[in-house]
């Protein structure tokens, strides 16, 4: 049996588990009915905020704040994957990131079809989780199909879906609206979940004429602002979202992800959703609740949906601060692939505190790395 020597930070999804899971906690008052991940950024923060609706409201003040660090303190450096069979046999489910693991831009990474076929032949459950919110699950299903991969829609979980699922999980009022800074994927998932929304791509062409005495109006019924990657991002959206968060009582501020960069093409890295989220963080002076990786919301959702034991999951990704931390926060085994944004030098940098259990060049190494003969 393959056993990880890594110190693991377990899920932050349930408030009742906070006291035992985080490194440092002063005091916090949270209603027992409040069942979603509170704060999930891996950087150390001190929170002074009020979030929620009726029974979901809570407050953490300056004197009694929650301060923690989610990054796992690695007692052992990541090991190169030398025995793929042992890792495969030790888990029931593989969760794969997509960008940088399965594809780059619109190009499939070499050896992926054969690797997925191998894992399925061994009876492994495959799940694909992406922080990219520009597409819905159905749209991602078409992308997999276009690349020649047979992946069921039920196996795909995008952060666009996570935003809608999260709002459902807290019984977000159906008479409230959601302002979207993001693309079509978020709109589709919100509509499928029965929520009313405004914004999105259609606000991409709107401009503000800054004339003396000009006052920008906004919808007072907006109860949540969801921010994701947005190629139509502009000042109108920043101001509209800012007004909703700052002036609408109890308005939630959600981020699909805070990725610094993304793979729009396979030629270079491009500014990611974190740049859009950062603009509203600056203007509202509030931190968002992030529903994508490394938040454990999606991990808990998947575990409940499929009845998976988290210790029987291996998270495979190319990012340390999202994919690997996502797996560690969820209590899973973790495998870093060097086919995306993280290089070996970045992994082994003394300043890097996030260490996966194993690392390898690409997922197709599963095809060649066999158990060593004794």
Topology summary:
Blueprint: H1 18-21, E1 45-46, E2 49-51, E3 58-60, E4 67-68, E5 79-80, H2 84-90, E6 93-96, E7 103-104, E8 107-108, H3 112-121, E9 125-130, H4 137-146, E10 156-158, H5 159-169, E11 177-181, H6 184-192, E12 196-199, E13 222-227, H7 235-247, E14 252-255, E15 261-262, E16 270-271, H8 273-284, E17 289-290, H9 297-306, E18 313-317, H10 320-329, E19 333-337, H11 344-347, E20 358-360
Parallel strand pairs: 5-20, 6-9, 6-18, 9-10, 11-12, 11-13, 13-14, 14-17, 18-19, 19-20
Antiparallel strand pairs: 1-4, 2-3, 7-8, 15-16
Can you tell me about this structure?
Keywords: Acetylation, Chloroplast, Hydrolase, Phosphoprotein, Photorespiration, Plastid, Transit peptide. Its main location: plastid. Pfam families: Hydrolase_6, Hydrolase_like. The two termini are 16 Å apart. The strands form 6 sheets. The chain has a 7-stranded parallel β-sheet, sandwiched between helices. The longest helix is centred in the middle third of the chain and has 13 residues, at 235-247. It is an alpha/beta fold. The protein is built from 11 helices and 20 strands. The protein has helices at 18-21, 84-90, 112-121, 137-146, 159-169, 184-192, 235-247, 273-284, 297-306, 320-329, 344-347; strands at 45-46, 49-51, 58-60, 67-68, 79-80, 93-96, 103-104, 107-108, 125-130, 156-158, 177-181, 196-199, 222-227, 252-255, 261-262, 270-271, 289-290, 313-317, 333-337, 358-360. The radius of gyration is 21 Å and the shape is elongated. The model is unreliable at 3-75 (pLDDT under 50).
């Amino acid at each position: 049996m393959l056993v990880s020597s890594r110190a693991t930070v377990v899920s932050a999804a349930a408030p009742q588990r906070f006291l035992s899971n985080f490194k440092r906690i002063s005091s916090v008052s949270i209603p027992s009915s409040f069942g979603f991940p509170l704060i999930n950024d891996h950087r150390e923060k001190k929170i002074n905020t009020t979030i929620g609706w009726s029974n979901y409201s809570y407050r953490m003040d300056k004197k009694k704040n929650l301060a923690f660090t989610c990054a796992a303190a690695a007692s052992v450096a990541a090991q190169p994957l030398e025995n793929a069979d042992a890792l495969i046999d030790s888990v029931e489910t593989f969760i794969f990131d997509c960008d940088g693991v399965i594809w780059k831009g619109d190009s499939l990474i070499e050896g992926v079809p054969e690797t997925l076929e191998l894992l399925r032949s061994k009876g492994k459950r495959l799940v694909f989780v992406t922080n990219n919110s520009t597409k819905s699950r159905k749209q991602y299903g078409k992308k997999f199909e276009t690349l020649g991969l047979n992946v069921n829609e039920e196996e795909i979980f995008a952060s666009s879906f996570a935003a809608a699922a999260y709002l459902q999980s807290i019984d977000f009022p159906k008479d409230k609206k959601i302002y979207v800074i993001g693309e079509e994927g978020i709109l589709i998932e919100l509509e499928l979940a029965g929520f009313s929304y405004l914004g999105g791509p259609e606000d991409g062409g709107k401009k503000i004429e800054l004339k003396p005495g000009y006052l920008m109006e906004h919808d007072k019924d907006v109860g949540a602002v969801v921010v994701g990657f947005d190629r139509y991002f502009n000042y109108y959206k920043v101001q509209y979202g800012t007004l909703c968060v700052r002036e609408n009582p109890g308005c939630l501020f959600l981020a699909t992800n805070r990725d610094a960069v993304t793979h729009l093409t396979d030629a270079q890295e491009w500014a990611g959703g974190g740049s859009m989220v950062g603009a509203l963080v600056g203007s509202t002076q509030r931190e968002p609740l992030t529903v994508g990786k490394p938040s454990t919301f999606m991990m808990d959702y998947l575990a409940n949906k499929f009845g998976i034991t988290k210790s029987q999951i291996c998270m495979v990704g190319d990012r340390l601060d999202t994919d690997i931390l996502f797996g560690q926060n969820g209590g899973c085994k973790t495998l870093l692939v060097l086919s995306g944004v993280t290089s070996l030098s970045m992994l082994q940098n003394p300043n890097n505190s996030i260490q996966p259990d194993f690392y390898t060049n690409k997922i197709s190494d599963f095809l060649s790395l066999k158990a060593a003969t004794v």
